[in-house]
Specification:
This protein is mainly alpha-helical. Helices cover 40% and strands 0% of the residues.
Length: 67
């Protein structure tokens, strides 16, 4: 989770050019089988994964965009 955002570069570009970016929309369709969601959830296939990782990652991006 979160690797899609990191690898796509979209977030990185928004952060690097945040003075030129107006709104940023965080859109997530809760597709649990594809692990594309930003709400806390436990992973049965990776039990060591922090259930708040996607939410914390999104909060971190929001903080970087606002700084």
């Amino acid at each position: 989770m979160g690797k899609l955002l990191l690898s796509s570069g979209a977030v990185r570009v928004c952060i690097e050019h945040r003075s030129q970016v107006s709104p940023v929309v965080v859109y997530s369709w809760n597709e649990y089988f594809e692990r594309r969601f930003i709400e806390p959830a436990y992973s049965y296939t990776d039990p060591g994964l922090n259930p708040y990782y996607p939410l914390n990652l999104t909060a971190n991006y929001a903080h970087q965009l606002n700084s």
